[in-house]
Structure formats: C-alpha cells, structure tokens
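Figure S7 source data.
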Amino acid sequence: MTECFKGSFTQQDPIPEEGIAAALEVMRSGRLHRYNLAPGDPGEVGRLEQEFAQYVGAKYALAVASGGYALSTALRALEVQPGERVLTNAFTLAPVPGAIASVNAVPVFVGVTEALTIDLDDLECKAGAARVLLLSHMRGHLTDMDRLMEIACANDLIVVEDCAHTMGAAWKGRPSGRDGLIGCYSTQTYKHMNSGEGGFLVTDDDAVMARAIMLSGSYMLYGRHGTRPPEEVFAQIKYDTPNISGRMDHLRAAVLRPQLAGLEARIEAWNERYRVVEEGLRGTPGLTLVDRPEEERFVGSSIQVLLLDWMGEAIEEVLRRCAARGVELKWFGGAEPEGFTSRYDSWHYAPSAPMPASDRVLRGILDMRLPLTFSLEDCALIARIIRAEVGAVWQGGAG
Ligand SMILES: *Cc1c(COP(=O)(O)O)cnc(C)c1O
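Tokens for the predicted pyridoxal-5'-phosphate complex:
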C-alpha cells in the first residue's frame, strides 16, 4: 500500500489559553490602542517590548505592525536616501527587497551558497559599493556571523538583520539580530510567534530607536514606550522625523506575551521534528542535505534540501509525485513566482546582473514548512514519502 500524508502544511497550533484570556481582557477594557493606558499601567505592548528586549539582550525593542514594516522602518531610521544602493540577499522573500523599494532605494543582490547563506566572497566584492546591508537569514540559515561582521567593519557597512526566520536562533550564543546595528523580526502567522501580523525592531542605539519610535507613529507619546532612549535623544530628532504609522496594538501583544514565554519549548519541538525529517532523508541518492554548522543554534520551523544539477522537469516530477501523496514541497527554481516563493530575478523593479553560481543553488532548493501540529510520526512519514519519490525520479535519470 502506498502511504499518504493527510495533515495540513498551513495548520498552526492554537494560541495558548493564557493569551486568549489576556486578549479577552484587553477587549473587555476597550483599550486596544497602545497609547490608551489606564493610569500607572504600562499596557500589554509596553510589557511585551520589555520582555522581548530582555529575551534577545537588547537595550531597546519596538513592537510594530509587521516584519516588513520593521525592515522599512530600520532603513528610514538609518536615513537611507532615494536612489541609494542597499545590499541584500539574492535568496530571500519579497518583503526584503520590497522594504528597500519602499524607501525608493535600490536593492543590490549578493549571491547564495550551497549552505543557503549569503556568499561572503561576493559580499566582500560588493561591500564597498553601499552603506547598508539588509541581511536576510533566509529560512533560518545563519552565515558565519564573525566573518560577516569583519567584512562589514572593514567596509563601514551598517548591518540590518532580517530575523523573520531566526527569532530564537543564535550564532556562538549571540542571539540572531544582535550582531547588526538593528534586528528585525516578524510575528506573522507563519513565523515563530503568531499574532496574525506583527513584528519587532531591536537595537542598542539611542538615535536609531528614537527615530524608529517616532516613525512608528508615536506622536509625542513616546514616553509611554516599554523601552526607550532618554528624552534628550528625542529632543534632537522629534521635529525632523515623520510619523509613518505602523504600531502594534494591545490585542496582538496580549496574544504574543505567553508565546514569548513558551518560545524555548517551541524551538525544541521544531528541532525534534527537523531532526526526524533530516535523518529520514539522509543518504537519499541525488538529494543534498544542508549542513548545520556547530556554531549555529537554529530553529527548525522549516527544512530545505537541494536537488543540485537536476533538470527542471525532473524536479517538477518530484513535486507532483510528493503532492499526490499529500506532501507539499515549494521549489525556489520555478520560472514563475508562486505562493510565497520568488527569486531575485522575479523582482523586475530591482534589475540585477545574472549570478550563475547562485542560480544553480536556487534551481535546486526544495522547501518545506514544519508546523508544530505535525507529530514526530508525521515527520517520519513525510521523509519516507520524499525519499521514495526522489529515489523513483532519480533512478529514471534526473540529471
Ligand atoms: C515573513 C518575512 C518577512 C516579513 O514579515 P511580515 O511580517 O510578513 O511583513 C521578512 N523577511 C522574510 C524572509 C520573511 O519570510
């Protein structure tokens, strides 16, 4: 009998009961706006900012409306100018070049390696040509952050980290988002905490955080923030920083606070699932697993494998056969952007020179989410199905 998987790749686990109760409390209070506070109450958003800052070890955290908003706010807080070139990853998702385009700056793509991380040799070549690197830790793969920061320092390159897939991850124990000047996170449904939409921006820099708070739509109520620079820093920027509203509200913060408290346990649950799929796929002919370096603490909320140098039609055949057995794989090599996947050459507003070595990697990337609603048995079954179907197509001659 052919085994099939019956679960859903888009079914998230529920919001913790504690978060549901806190959200009901916020609704009963009628005070949903972050600055609508009862006397003496820091509010859910203010508390969440304090807790998140503490979690990543940052001086300041700002909760905002989305991860993409955090990225564009970071660029605005750094006063990126129209027409300015901003370096970013060729392997990332659309909100990243989109954040650069939102400030009328120009994305310049840096290649991807077989480790699915930014190509540091390519970065070294391009580092002199920009002031800012918007570094995307795409699908949770961390590059050698020591070498990356050395390149950045040597070239006066400011690093903004897109940690949409690395909330809770670390390089040599340093939380992801803390090597760069600014770290940005998403709490959109498919990330590591789920408030539907939402995000964070963290930094230790007074002027950057003061500008980010003003930009996020604080009016002159910045004094009500959970973590904030001293008044004199605001005094220097408050007349020159526009209000581009993108605040978080108490309802979302209420839903997020218990998730943050439970994040470490969720990370362990993800990594257990990741290891089961990884072990199940190890040694599959024609399929390359992505090595996870010792120095990296990752969050296995999704897994990627490579079918390097396969013909496109053979990869499509694998996708069809897996889909017929209930396993939804995403392919970054498709000619047309589909669902959440797209590639640097599908963003026509940001023209780029071809990158053959990166194209070879991108053409081979298969990607799969691992929602926490999957059991370990589900994960083992999924791996058996992929292994069997990759094997069948490989034997038929895929290269
Ligand atoms: C989801 C995502 C973002 C942006 O997050 P939103 O909250 O959806 O705006 C940024 N970068 C990457 C790589 C993402 O996957």
